[in-house]
Amino acid sequence: MPIAKEQLHLTKDQLGNIQIASVSATIIARLLIGRLVDKFGPRIIYTWLLVICSVPVLLIGISQSYESFLFFRLAIGVIGASFVITQFHTSVMFAPSIKGTANATAGGFGNAGAGLANITMPLIAAGFVGLGVCTKEDSWRYAMIVPGVLLLVFAFLYLRFTKDLPNGNYKELGIETANKENTFMLAVKDYRTWVLTIAYAACFGVEITIDNFAPIYFTDTFGASLKTAGICAGIFGLINLFARPLGGIVADKVGKRYGFSGKNLLLALLLLIEGVGVIFFGMTNQLGLAIFLMFLFGMSLKMANGATYSLVPFVNPKAVGSVAGIVGAGGNIGAMLIAFLFKAKAVKFTKDVIDESGVSQTKDLIDYTSAFYVLGIIILVTGFVVLAIKLLVKDKEEEKLPAAVNLAYQTIKS
């Protein structure tokens, strides 16, 4: 982005619009994909999503203006809908007792993939320059070819080596023609869908916010160097490798012993811990304590991500994709609303700081303390709301059915 920004002469406001566009596209795509995957199955929908999304990834390199870059970035945001298909596929492929573990592990690897891309894409760009293929200014354009081609490769692999259900594909089983019910409306009419949507906004939405604001927060608040701020933000991202899967694992174990009301209680407690951690994180003026608090609320919010999607498959077995899509979109909506909160609550101030070379400079900085305080209160309220509402499955007998059999049973019954 720094290279593209310089070459295309992008302003700060234009960069902000590009970020908002990418998140907005993901919201719409997740809502649409949820309904499509319910009707046609994950195999075909995932394959087409990968193929279609490879186009803007490959073509963004030809951008010569802000408008064209914004358009392609908007289109690339559609890839975010892949999360919904993954969550649907793991939900129908694994038994009820381990759905949470499967969903959370897959989700955690998705976040890890984003971190891996952040590490490897600059290396790929540098590799093209080192091979003499292009100049440094154009390296970002050539680097985008690699993920574009990989999307096409994995579209083929997914089509070739996966099945919609353990016992076959939708088309072979006649599920496409049988599944005529509007699953999106089933999900919309169920209050539990919206409770989980709000909960996911309060955990995953916060995660995206911290990813964006952590580096500048550590730099402005504690005078940390860019290197130190990057390491602190990196710690928050690396928690994903084990925290989200852990949330799913714990949720499954709680579910076996205490049922779905137990999972509900776990999610509420994780949100409450997250809210308290965020409030004190924004109040502390010690770097070491801030890092500890970030790890604390980071663990709880990423475990809450996993716990949320341990409940999603059981809201309505006939509308798993639609429920997953709405809840997933809620996470991105939460990120957008929190971004506006930070924009409104951030206070600009001037401070003398010492840069990495030891020179004292007067800089305009931003204080996010009040924003973190308000955010923490919102998370706490969300936790109490989740605690107050029972997220129970209507038909207890359906819990005992294996995932694929349950889906087929519900489709035939409808």
Automatic annotation (TrEMBL):
Membrane topology: Multi-pass membrane protein
Keyword annotations of the record: Membrane, Nitrate assimilation, Transmembrane, Transmembrane helix
InterPro entries per record: MFS, MFS_dom, MFS_trans_sf, NO3_transporter
Similarity comment text for this entry: Belongs to the major facilitator superfamily. Nitrate/nitrite porter (TC 2.A.1.8) family.
Major facilitator superfamily (MFS) profile domain mapped to chain residues: 1-394
Name of the molecule in the record: MFS transporter
Organism of origin: Flavobacterium limi
Location in or out of the cell: Membrane
Gene giving rise to this polypeptide: crnA
Record-annotated membrane-spanning stretches: 15-33, 45-63, 69-88, 109-133, 139-159, 194-218, 224-243, 264-283, 289-312, 319-342, 371-393
Chief localization: membrane
Domain of life, source organism: Bacteria
Pfam families on file: MFS_1
